[in-house]
Amino acid sequence: MGAAMVGWAHLPFGRLDGMGLEDLITRAGREALQHAGIDGTVVDGVWLGNLNGGFTPDVFASSLALQCDDALRWKPATRLENACASGSAALYAACDAIEAGRARVALVIGAEKMTAVSGAETTRILGDCGYSGEAGHPPGGFPGIFASIAQDYFAAHGDHSATLARIAAKNHANGALNPWAHMRKDLGFEFCNTVSDRNPMIAAPLRKTDCSLVSDGAAAIILAADEAVADFPRAVRLRARVQVNDYLPMARRRVVDFEGPRRAWQQALLQAGCAVHDLSLAEVHDCFTIAELLTYEAMGLAPAGQGHRLLEDGTVLRSGRLPVNASGGLKAKGHPIGATGVSMHVVSAMQLMGEAGDLQVPGATLAGVFNMGGSAVANYVSILERAR
């Protein structure tokens, strides 16, 4: 028995001063129930993706979701945390319950309230997603970690600062069309490729435009067992889903090899019975632009060191053969940690149903989703297809 997405909701991402974590969770859950045309009586459980880590006092947040609908009272609710892949962790746990026969319909919510604390506190919280034994090495938290990865890539394949700028410019151009995006502004290649007061170097070689946004936001999904899909007007099936975890200490691996993402993509494509070039689009984890570049190669779109060619020949552009991050990605859409994985699946489902509005990739039939926790530690790849 498999599972399909039969309803969803996506709130705007950004600095949402009027909304706390509880508001984000309950609004997203309520809108997803409405989209699926059901109420809480038919839901068998709730799965919440949320990092928290000190962003809000609501550490024990799973039962906040019951306030979406009083009929959810007494239903089991569980919070999942797997760093920046917490949303996919929640989705996969709900799929597990459905495939085990313990649930027929599930509510999955991903949410994060990040902007209620200072920038320094945000850096500290996110830094705690790394290995405590390597704290401060390299310095600068995750920007420093991914800058180090970029340095290793440049040492092996030459300076690709312009390539990273092209990724940033592409995703900002896409994000300008996304009504849910945190930043809806086409910044252009020259701005992204130039260090300036407005685009300072954060951790060389990564500039501000190479880093994803600190955002509040939430998204939600109604999942149903295959046998229940006929009860709903729309359905997007998870044709394949794979989770691969690598060592947390970076000293035990060459992070620049992106071996965990590569293995996850290989296994998911094999499970789905397709090749990467069969995909109509992909939403991938561009927490930093170097992560998107490495993902091109991990997916099998290009050999090591050759990912830049996909930008130069237009393959990954909105008009290309395999658009990557047509939503704007984390770079422009925003990166509310717990919401990210759920959001990526929601925008992909919209594409496959032909309901993505200005973001629509024409004729989309098969989508790939890659959500990553930490420095290629928790790696989730889903292959999605329309089921009705």
List the helices and strands and how they pair.
Blueprint: E1 3-10, H1 21-36, E2 45-49, E3 77-80, H2 86-99, E4 105-112, H3 119-127, H4 141-157, H5 161-175, H6 189-192, E5 201-203, E6 206-207, E7 217-225, E8 236-245, H7 259-272, E9 281-284, H8 289-299, H9 308-312, H10 329-333, H11 337-352, E10 366-373, E11 378-386
Helix pairs in contact: 2-11, 5-8, 7-8
What does this structure look like?
The protein contains 11 helices and 11 strands. It is 32% helix and 18% strand. The protein is of the alpha/beta class. The protein has helices at 21-36, 86-99, 119-127, 141-157, 161-175, 189-192, 259-272, 289-299, 308-312, 329-333, 337-352; strands spanning 3-10, 45-49, 77-80, 105-112, 201-203, 206-207, 217-225, 236-245, 281-284, 366-373, 378-386. The chain has a 9-stranded mixed sheet with strand order 3-2-4-7-1-8-11-10-9. It is globular. The protein starts with a strand and ends with a strand. It has a domain at 3-117 and 214-231: 3-Layer(aba) Sandwich (Peroxisomal Thiolase, Chain A, domain 1). The model has no long low-confidence stretch (mean pLDDT 97). Strand 10 and strand 11 form a beta hairpin. The longest helix is centred in the middle third of the chain and has 17 residues, at 141-157. Keywords: Acyltransferase, Transferase. Pfam families: Thiolase_C_1, Thiolase_N. InterPro entries: Thiolase, Thiolase-like, Thiolase_C_2, Thiolase_N.
Low-confidence stretches: none
Intertermini distance: 17 Å
Query: Which range best describes the helical content: under 10%, 10-25%, 25-40%, 40-55%, 55-70% or over 70%?
Result: 25-40%
Mean pLDDT: 97
Lateral strand order in the biggest sheet: 3-2-4-7-1-8-11-10-9
The name CATH uses for the topology of the domain at 3-117 and 214-231 is: Peroxisomal Thiolase, Chain A, domain 1
CATH architectural type of the domain at 3-117 and 214-231: 3-Layer(aba) Sandwich
Q: Determine the number of helices (DSSP H or I, runs of at least 4 residues).
A: 11
Envelope shape: globular
CATH homologous superfamily label of the domain at 3-117 and 214-231? Thiolase/Chalcone synthase
Radius of gyration: 19 Å
What does the largest sheet look like?
Answer: 9 strands, mixed
Q: In what range is the share of β-strand residues? A: 15-25%
What's the β-strand tally?
11
What is the SS-derived class?
A: alpha/beta
Q: In sequence order, what are the helices and strands, one letter per element?
A: EHEEHEHHHHEEEEHEHHHHEE
Q: What is the CATH class name of the domain at 3-117 and 214-231?
A: Alpha Beta
Q: In oligomeric terms, what are we looking at?
A: single chain
